[in-house]
Amino acid sequence: MTIDPALSRVVCSESEITWGGAASTAFWIDQREELAVAFYTQLLPSSTYRIRPQLRQLVYQAVTG
After folding, report:
1. Mean pLDDT, to the nearest integer, of 1-11?
2. What is the pTM of this model?
C-alpha cells in the first residue's frame, strides 16, 4: 500500500494497492481514481523490458477528470 506517493517516485495515489510478479505481470487498485488494472505477460526476467512503468504512465495519461 502506498503511504506517500512522492517517495515512491511512481505515478500513483495515496493508499493505492499494487503487486508485481516475476514474469512482468502487474496489478494495482487506485480507489481515488476508481481504477483497477491487471496486466498479464510472460517476460522473464521482469527487467527484460521496462513495460510496467510504461503501462502505468499510459493508464494514468488516459484517465481524464
Report:
1. 70
2. 0.74
